[in-house]
Amino acid sequence: MAYRVTRAGRDSDAKTATGLTRLKINYKGLLGINRDRTVHHVKEAYRAVQHVTAVFDGSLRRIADYEWTSEPTFKNVAVFAYAGTDRAQAVTIWLSGKAPMANYPVKRATFTFARGAFADPVYVDLRTGTVYDVADTMWSRKGATYIFRDVPVYDSPILIADRSVIGEIVPKTMPRGEDDG
What we know:
By secondary structure, the chain is mainly beta.
């Protein structure tokens, strides 16, 4: 009979140690699987990884010490800026104070970037992959300072980016609205 050492350091029958008597599956991956270990469906996180890697493909470099402000001021918000070889920028924003939730309330804010570079800005929800045009009434520029108003943010990364950073994707019109929560 085959034996192996278990995590507890004890010898165990291979049949029980390998789970042949009862199949245990880790369900936390990017793909939903059946008990026979075939793929049942792709999870939302799988699509999100596709969207993130489509944008962050090695062509962008991080901008250190990027100056930004928000109104209202959030206690826990993550903001990171990146630039392409043509200096066009992409800024990731998400509320980072709590663990991600299925129905996290969307907050709206005004973001100011002191050293921006956006000729044709778009808003990208990296979780869903939806791309929105940013209406002329929702952004303005004063020298190198860019102001984006009524930006929806939540516990998943969004992107304010120059269209050249994300390529040729037909965007939707970004809805204006009040906070969802």
